[in-house]
Sequence to fold (703 residues):
Amino acid sequence: MGQEAPKDKGALSVIIGNETCKLKKAEGETGMRKTAVLGIFLAGTGLLAACSSGEEGEAQAWLEEDWEAINAEADGSDVRMFMWGGDDGLNQYMDEYVIPAVEQEHNIDLERVPIDTEESLQRLLTEKEAGEQEGTMDILWLNGENFRAAKENELLLGSFTEKLPRFNEYIDADSPETTLDFGTPTEGMESPLGKVQFTFIYDTEKIDQPPDTWEELRQWAEDNPGEFTYPEATDFTGNAFLRQLLYDQYGNDAAFASEAFDEEALEENTEPMWDYLNELEGSLWREGQTYPASVEELDRLYSRGEVSMTMGYNEARAESLIRDGTFPETTDTFMLDSGSIGNTHFLTMPFNAGNPAGAMVVMDFLLSPEAQIEKMNPDGWGESSVLDPELLTEEDRRAMEAVDRGASVPSQEELDNAYLPELDADYVGWLEEKWNNEVVQP
Amino acid sequence: MKHKVIIGVFLLIFSVLPLLLLLLQSIAPGWGWGELFPSAVSVQAWQTALGDPALREAVAVTIMVILFVAAGNVILGVPAAKMLAYKHFRGKLWLDNLLFLPILIPMTAVAMGIHFTFIRAGLADTWLGTALVLFIPTLPYTIRVLRAGFERLGPESEEQAKSLGSTTLQALMFVQLPQIMPSLRSAVFLTVVITAGQYILPVIIGGGTVPMLSLLYFPYSNSANEAVVSALSLLFALLPLVVILLAEMVMRLVFAAAHRR
Fold:
């Protein structure tokens, strides 16, 4: 998954973990004997103490402190940031810019720990059960399904963004890009880091004029059999491709995102979408008998020239791959006229963060215009800024506009015009299942 | 002669060629489909792989953990294997199956419970805890392999050594172990390779604070940049080789010292 924020698998185990806690809570209301038996059983494993110990830890106390005290505490401390580490650009941005900068400006020793977000959540869940109040994780990178699972399981420290001076200064706190994370209200529990939009990537040498509509895309695929495919619905990007198509069933109306997830209505209204995909299948790579399991596999097919298009949930993802020679130099990016869904990814603190003060100072630093402008540098991460240009100083705004993100990245204006808010996380699972039934099975 | 040719061909197809391909891929980014030769050569992937500042520490920690696990496997595995090979007692079949069980149960299912226990014991997030948990996927194999070695050897050599006045330990060190060297070597080899390749256990128990090499490598395996993946794969393959050489040296030294006495 290119650079498009943490993945969202593994929610199942997280939910199972939640059940045990629910079980425990319900238990207090049942009869004495039952409680005793269960109690002995649970005490043996230590679950009893863990689930009921909801008392506020030391970490929460830092949410009440003022910024000066937080800054003083952060000075000279260590901060551990857990983030998925499979992207060179992202790693480079962290290792070569952020880590030295926070060391210099705040005397903080920041360490990047490259672990998948699901694994991190799994660990947090066990730590919560075991009553571990002093965790190793200070900052966690996440969004979407993972955020929802973390929030529902009370794995997060709490609402903190209004503490961050730069959040208050530069972020449009009322914009749905900030208040909603795949439909889940953020409630100040996570601070934005970056945002990305869905785009298609193609080779200009093989395609003169990229398609503008879904119909043109299908026509092009039909005329060039075997040169197009998309990742499976279980893949982050493959699912985004399907959500993009789903939006089209609803006239690409941004209001669709704020509608509640209604499975019955979906079943009724999405018939044309599945017909479209089934019709498309015959023209796909290997005639649709198999789909790439991940967007990286699709990328490899593209970089070897087997297919002429790939895609990515990050408008700048082609740029770094072109620069390091993975993608041909004739690679460019396009969006359909119908729009491009986008999402924001965030940083948060777990309930047992060992150094919340240091974590908040680092997250505040990452919202500085300097850090956000550096993040746009295509030789590093090349990712879009989350700051509201209206709130920036004249000087910073010019500096931001002056960044050359690379020829393959659509202009900010194009991106803003095409922007469609991301759908509720419930759609992800529904599309996975439905795609399997409608497209793979028959 | 004919055998040697067949073995040679197999070696070439299944080990030399894939390694060579990895090496080529690591220095030729964007080697396109249908191109006979790569269009460009660059060492950038190696710079990315070797430039990761965590790499040096990860290599050191990984070697330490692997050696610890390998030594512990031999120390725990030899008595267990010997007893299973020579002694007959009630419930032996049960014990045998019980010792093999850790391999059959999915590791992710066990990891959460162990993590829970280790947090309570203060072993979570420490290198010792990580090393201890890595006995689970390795010790069953070690016992199996060593047991087969002891069974082939038979109990007679120990009896003979004892009749000549040696203690059980002396018989083990001077008579039995030198004779089951091939089994010992296989056991160490398996332990090293399995330990190096573990991802979930070090992630869950070590929590990223114990930087094993697999933690650095696995996230990259998902990257679209095949060159970096290839470079890291080669490094990753090299490490067990180095450790096995180290282990071999240690074993030889131990036996040589034992002989001199």
Residues 88-106 of chain A form the longest helix (19 residues).
